[in-house]
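Quick one - inputs below.
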Amino acid sequence: MSKDQFDVAIGVVPPSTVDVEAVLDRERRRARVRRVANPWTAVGAGVAAVAVGAVFVLAPGDPGPAVVTPGAAPPPPSADACKNAPRPTTAPLREKASVVADRLSTVLTDAVRQRVAAGTTLGVHPMGQYPKGTQHGPLAFFHVFSAFVSHEDGECSGGEDYFMAAASTSEKAHKGNVWAIVTRLGGNAGPATECQPAPQDTQGSCHRRTGPHGETIVEERLVMPGGPTVDRVNVTKPDGTGVIVEAQNTARDAKLGDAPDMPAPPLSPAQLAEVALDPGLTLYP
Amino acid sequence: MKRPEEAGYRDYVTTRMDVMRRTAYLLCRDWHLADDLVSITIGKLYRHWSRARQVEHLDAYVRRILVRTWLDEKARAWRREEPAETLPEPPVLPSDDVVERIGLLELLDALPPRRRAAVVLRYYCDLSIEETAEILECSAGTVKSQTARGLESLRALVAASRN
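Output:
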């Protein structure tokens, strides 16, 4: 029995339907969400995850599958990989997801338009694509959802349940982007409630405070030397809603390492906090 | 993942795509599922690329992900195949080489998942017994017995198709 016999048996190989770029998009998205939700994991392990309908590692601080070399003993598989996965702890939604998305879109769009520089236009952004190939409008929320699936190799897939919106911003030659997540607390995309160390190779500052109605606010600024600046505000509201709003001074995505397209992100941390604290940005109106 | 790392990942995945798809197909004998398995595998690889790219045997690492993903899929109830009462008639009588070709794949398909994986890893991926045992998370002795039984069945089928 030889490799050639197998290749002959396989015969003509049909064109591949594996979309590497789609996998990259999906993994970047989950990395972004996990980085936001569990920043210490990204700092500690240098990896990140959360998925759009595919497999991912959920537990904060999970070191991921061991790098195995021949002869090394593998770790025992988990009986239920999703047993300890983060799950929403606040009340289920009372509205349909589409109704929630429409309502949040109106609130966020108004809040952002009121605060960006005069003449700024909002456009679609690749982060507003979900599922792959379906592009949502500027700051139009969509429901990211997938069921939990426990895998024998100890990984857990699915478990996404949050609303997301994104837009590019353009004001003359200045280009940036803004995105937001609104979620029930306790899930895998919840806002940070404490300041965390900045990721490697990034200068960061962070400030935690309490809002006027008891909200927990964590304001972060991450600056990549020679690269873009990311301002992010995490708000945990007493009604059980988590809000994350982020602005970047680059047209695409700060993680791609592009040079800044404008001096500072289109919204300052203070403005992002105002947006996130808008009473309309809630899952429980 | 930073851009240079991502470029390295993309290069690796693109270069190894064909062999990953072929290996996946030998395991599951369904090109759609094979591509699904490869997509899941490269997704997992992306998540651990910063460490994976430093391992000595990256191909072995990726094969391990692929095989484990497939065994995992096989364990899921919704993936289990539904037996049909009657087999469809082939539209034309296949030639001898096609009989042998289809027979090899069909017999491979008839092997239990772990035995099939052992045969594919040993004789298609050309792995040692120890490397195969590592991926299948079993002893070298188990790999020997699995592949011996698998080969025995394959040889019998090839002989029968020639007769």
